[in-house]
Amino acid sequence: MAEVRLVHVHKVFDNGAHVLHDITMEVGDGEFVVLLGPSGCGKTTVLRLIAGLEDITTGEIFIGGRRVNDVPPKDRDIAMVFQDYALYPHMTVYENIAFGLRMRGMARAELQRRVVDTARVLDILDLLQRKPHQVSGGERQRVALARAIVREPKVFLLDEPLSNLDAKLRGHMRAELHRLYRSLGATIIYVTHDQTEAMTLGTRIVVLRDGVVQQVDTPRGVYEKPVNTFVASFIGTPPMNLFPACLVQEQGEFLLRHQDGGLALPAAKASAAHLRPWLGSTVIAGIRPEHACLHTASPAMGKGLPGTVEMVERTGAESFVAVRTGYGSMVVRVPPDLPVSLSSPVLLTFDAEHVHLFDAGSQMRIL
Question: What is the mean pLDDT of residues 240-264?
């Protein structure tokens, strides 16, 4: 079994910086769990604690049911791939992959079999006799992965392994990693600040902010039911539109009023008991760009949120329009052929079934 558990883990550096706060999480055997968050949130520190490269301040870490707090890195049966490939420049690709096995005294025949089999899986067989400077960035990344895979560890720890690659190569390597995960059936913990990587690779996502776990869920769960405004705005490209509105009830229907006086949208269906505590209060409403609709007719013609077009981004199959409203800029996804001109008045309406509501004080999800 290769499950990983962190139980009430804290990390305080020597300078007094408390970078991880009560981290409790479990990675099941064979899971691909992504630690996602902005730079400085503590995700790499979590990985280094699991690897044994940092000492925990308080708490416990278990790998395969074994408490490893005091176990040295070499005895934890893990392999870590860093953002920096850290290949030995004077060695061939073959020697780089084989180095760890050779240091462990593995028999030559078994060592050669493992290196060749691993290189075949990663499609780098023809690179084995080259030096690192003779292969591309994506190929060097695959060599770094091969060096980890060849050891056949219980757990793989990947620390932003694709961040140094260009966009096209990152997309290719994401597909490679996904294929590799399916073929190995290994336990993988993957650190990134790139939400596209998190959404496409992970079976579950752990969202971190300032050393605190915000939400643990499937990619779909994190996207469709963010637990607070931070997760709502961090997940999604473009991010969710968030704006304040007053929750009211008229003729038995919950509505959101905005400062311009019109009805922005009906609140999504929910029990009266659930929403009643917020009646008459300002809440934070959220709507994703794909659940908003832009109308080019005069704002006076209907009820919605009026605004002015301030930017149009055409990406090919779709376009995104930024609209300046009384709540700041909001982004709407529109068909690529929709005629929109800068500075023109528009009206925004929203799909009531996909509205998100958050408490204005705690920023936590209401609906």
Answer: 77
